[in-house]
Amino acid sequence: MTRSPVGPDGAALAPAGPGVLAYQKRLQDSQWWPAEQLLEHQLRELARLVAHAWRTVPFHGARLAAAGLEPGRLIDLERWQRLAPLTRRDIQQAGGDLESTAVPAEHGKILTTRSSGSTGTPVTVRGTIFDAVVGKALMLRHCLWHPYDFAAKFASIRRVHGGTYDYPHGLHLDRWGDSATFPFATGPSSILSIGASIAQQAEWLLREDPDYLMTFPSNVRFLAAHCRERGIVFPHLEHVTTFGEVLSAETREECRRAWDLFVIDVYSAQEVGIVALQCPTHEHYHVQAETMFVEVVDERGEPCRPGQTGRVLVTPLNNYAMPVLRYEIGDWAELGGPCPCGRGLTVLKRILGRERNALLVAPTGERYWPAFGTRKLPELAPIVQHQFVQKSLQRIEARLVTARPLTRREERALRAYILANLPYRFELDFTYFDELPRNDAGKFEDFVCEATG
Fold first, then answer.
1. Which candidate, 123, 46, 59, 126, places its Cα nearest to that of 91?
2. Region at 209 (left for phi over 0; alpha for psi -120 to 50; beta for the rest)
3. Residues 6+ away with beta carbon under 8 Å from 42
4. Number of H helices, E strands in the chain
5. What mean pLDDT value characterizes the chain?
6. Residue 190: phi, psi to the nearest 5?
7. Contact present, 318 and 180 (Cβ < 8 Å)
8. Is 248 helix (H, G, I), strand (E, B) or coil?
9. 17, 318, 380, 438: which one has the fewest Cβ atoms less than 10 Å from its Cβ?
10. Which residues contact 93 (CB under 8 A, 6 or more apart)?
């Protein structure tokens, strides 16, 4: 990998390769740039990305032309805002037309990411090694922003595949992660599959006795409540890091009540990577503006002002394999003003949406993360959108929107696959819809629990 975008002073603003700490030093500098300088960098990177998409991505040509965004021209925000937002349904329907026909060779191997469909509409996105390396650098930035002792023990409870991650042992490693993320020695780490019940997770953490825990917000909310009700504390746990969903104020408070510790959040999505990191001195977020162009727009598509809440649109600046321009990620956020910490990075005061409101309840009363193996569902049948509703302790309803009626063979394959991913042999019903409804707050929930237990 040789491509390295440059800042106004000519220094590289992207890593030359995995684990290159010179890029981390640049991030340490660029976080203090004034907002105007960051915007100048973003517009320059957008112009490069638009020119690439115009030439090599069939889906984007007519859309860019209609907005007046042509190669060789500086990006004008007024024209940029004419570009229609990209939806999850657009990505599903576009297929290969969203993929570049000429990915720069220096960006490395093409990687595939399949979202789990937290909005009920799973998508597949292509990226590159280069894009992934940038994401790893942002993860290290998160660790450098917050009080981590790299010699301590790190535990994570997340969605992983393979029996080596299962309860009761999980996987044990002699370092936190790969050398591309942590290009120096670290302490040990352990990983547990989120398929373990909440009670099993608590017991595993007592045995592992970590200094730090990373997991999903909704998972830690139920885990903290479980521990508070039973007086379970982890003697060395200093803080919890959450990712993958939106972190609510209620979840932060539950962790304070249970363990008297604070939560640090990473705002990310599988399709685009890290969008924003929690400020080192406040509970709001800083957009990772060097690598991501983020907009918050109102119902008319106009930019929100600080204090206003709107839809979040994201444009990753380094994905040349499958450029997603003004991607409507499915979240709402409140735009913030300048941060007292002095960083010029855009502030998101609050983020709303995508936190699960419930866990799966087994007939025994144990609670589990609702993992239905949704990433693979579109491979088994032409599923456009899905929602799972637990109707009772024994029965689950799979609500599906499909591109065409399913065959009996497809239904059998879906049933077998879904049931194989659940901790108990539930009864499973299929119902079909033209469109799945949102809740009273206007949000879509991919899992709803109506059972009591």
1. 123
2. left
3. 289, 293, 317
4. 11, 20
5. 90
6. -140, 145
7. no
8. coil
9. 438
10. none
For residue 266, count other CB atoms closer than 10 A to its CB: 19
Distance of CA 391 to the CA centre of its chain: 28
Task: Say how far apart CA 238 and CA 254 lie, in whole Å.
Answer: 15
pLDDT at residue number 119:
55
3-24, pLDDT tens digit by residue?
Answer: 444 443 444 445 665 566 889 9
Each residue of 363-398: pLDDT tens digit? 988 888 787 877 788 899 999 888 999 999 999 999
Q: Which two tokens stand for residue 180?
A: 């591309």
Residues of the chain with CATH 3.30.300.30: 360-449
CATH fourth-level superfamily of 360-449 = ANL, C-terminal domain (3.30.300.30)
Q: What is the pLDDT of residues 350-365, one digit of tens each?
A: 998 655 567 788 998 8
Name the 3-class secondary structure at 46. Answer: helix
Is residue 443 pLDDT above 90, yes or no?
no
Q: Which helix (H) or strand (E) holds 47?
A: helix 35-56
* Cβ neighbourhood burial of 254 (10 Å; 0-12, 13-18, 19+): buried
Instruction: Write the Ramachandran bin of 231: left for phi over 0, alpha for psi from -120 to 50, otherwise beta.
Output: left
B/e letters for 204-219, b = 16+ CB within 10 Å, e = fewer, are: bbeebebbbbbbbbbb
Distances (CA, A) of 232 to 203, 204, 224: 9, 12, 9
The CA-atom distances, in angstroms, between 163 and each of 17, 168, 191, 417, 440 are 32, 11, 12, 17, 39
* Residue 188 or residue 446, greater confidence: 188
As beta bridge partners, residue 86 has 327
Tokens of residue 94, six digits:
């576009």
Contact 359, 372 (CB under 8 A): no
Homologous superfamily (CATH) for 1-355? ANL, N-terminal domain (3.40.50.12780)
